[in-house]
């Protein structure tokens, strides 16, 4: 799988991706909690794939 990275500005992202605007309006605590939830979910999937 090839990783693709594109550079953009925050204003372009806000216009193109409403999810960014949503998360920028959440508190730091909410954003960190979601990152932790996603991390746990990812680790669960990885662990299932090992077995």
- Overall pLDDT: 88
Q: Assign a percent range to the helix content.
A: over 70%
Q: Determine the structural class based on helices, strands and strand pairing.
A: mainly alpha
Major sheet summary line: none
Question: Unreliable stretches, pLDDT < 50, 5 or more residues?
Answer: none
The total strand number stands at 0
Give a structural overview:
By secondary structure, the protein is mainly α. It is 73% helix and 0% strand. α1 crosses α2. The two termini are 23 Å apart. The mean pLDDT is 88.
Task: Summarize this structure briefly.
The chain is mainly alpha-helical. It has helices at 10-16, 18-24, 28-50. The chain is built from three helices and no strands.
Question: What labels describe this entry?
Answer:
3 helices; single chain; 51 residues; mainly alpha
Task: Please outline the helices and strands.
Elements: H1 10-16, H2 18-24, H3 28-50
């Amino acid at each position: 799988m090839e990783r693709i990275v594109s550079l953009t500005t925050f204003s372009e992202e806000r216009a193109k991706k409403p999810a960014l605007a949503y998360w920028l309006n959440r508190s730091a605590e909410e954003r960190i909690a979601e990152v932790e939830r996603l991390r746990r979910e990812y680790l669960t999937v990885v662990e299932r794939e090992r077995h």
